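To: structure desk
From: M.T.
Subject: fold request, one chain
Message: Could you run this one when you get a chance? Sequence is below, nothing fancy, just the single chain.
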Amino acid sequence: MSNEELVKRLLAECGGKDNIVTATNCMTRLRIQVRDDSLVRDDALRKLDGVLGIVHDRSNFIEVVVGPGKSRKCADICADMGVPSVVGASGLSTENDWQANKAAVKAGQSHGRIQSMLKTFGEIFVPLIPGVIAAGLCSGLATLLAQVYPGYADNSFWNIVYNLLSLINASFMTYLTAWAGYRAAERFGATPILGGMLGMMTTLGNIDNISKIIGLYNEAQPLDAILRAGRGGVLAVVIGVWFLAKIEKAVRKHIPDNLDIMFTPLITLILCVIPYVFIIMPLTGFVSTGLCWVVEQVCMSANPIVRIVAGFISAALFLPMVAMGMHHGLVALYTVQLETLGFVTLYPALAMAGAGQVGTAIAIFLKAKKVKNQRLCSVIDGALPAGILGVGEPLIYGVTLPMGKPFFTAGLGAAFGGAFVMAMQVASTTWGPSGILAFPVMTASPNGAVMSMVYYGIGLIISYGMGFLITNAFVTTEEVAQA
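Reply: Done. Structure tokens follow.
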């Protein structure tokens, strides 16, 4: 039977498509996770033409041996049928009110092309955030150490500490395009290692050699070269891997199963590397340069009025962007800035949004206590500590968004803090942590690491205070009593 027929029979003998949670593959096996293990018919699976054996040694997980090449094709067919390779949003817990509210908000959102594209960027880069945070924290601490103790290199202990911190940061930043390529391949259904290889190619010196041969390299100003190592950065990688996924699937359809593992990767990379290097990298290079230029003109403007207005507007709009799922697109902008400049200028202002919510929540808590709304007091009791630490979702979906008006007063309060930190040119070494946990990463300001952290702290206090005052003025006790 054909691979399509085989997959249909496999799913049927595993209890039908509705019983399938995920389907992925290794070198020789199709790995299936099911909801109800009792519906799986082992004997029927073994008898299917094309099945070489099955491994069913734990509940709800079946590995069907179909052979090299064929396993990947079967997994692709499952994906085309709508069977996911990883557990999606349906696996989230809804035990807490704020989590249930978040799920309801997300379920009700429309998914146009732009929002879907932004969501795709988020799905690619969000799993990299632990590495981004670890690298950024180490970079911030290394910067702080060098400023506080300029003679660290003369002390063996502190010299080792500095180099270890720098090593952790370099382990991520040096290979950022490779990590992005690997994740993009997972998202687009390509072989992850091929995506990682394409990403790694982006930063290698051979790109410069090619550019010099064809006359596109700028010896006087290498960063201005039309084609150079790193040109296009992560934007080039994401687009390149999307193209690679299309090519790989097309190639695989025409390669015999027993030759798939040898020739599909080779042919795919050969077909992708030429358009990637000569078309995608130069074009996305112009886009990356343009994005950074626009952000620099606004967030790093020599005119403090421009910076103040930019910080106010961006911080005020961030919470609505989070609620609509549009904040995912900012991750790509952060990444481009971090890769190009070594720091992020927009994130510190946006981090004020959480602080505005903290001030708002305190104002609502005091009113709720006054009118004896114990339910709301209990919700804020649980969500407020997380908000202070920089985890804003419990407050968004448990307090401010369900009440409506406080969602906007929190944004307005945050806007004042955002205006201040952008006016003082606070910059971060990463994105991700906010609230009081973000102090160690707010060290990239031209004012120096220590003053940058001080200005960030003042911004938090301003956001707390303005969020409290504005909410206290515009949200009535009657509204809190009915919440």
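Reply (cont.): Strands lie at 20-25, 29-34, 53-58, 61-65. Let me know if you need anything else for the meeting.
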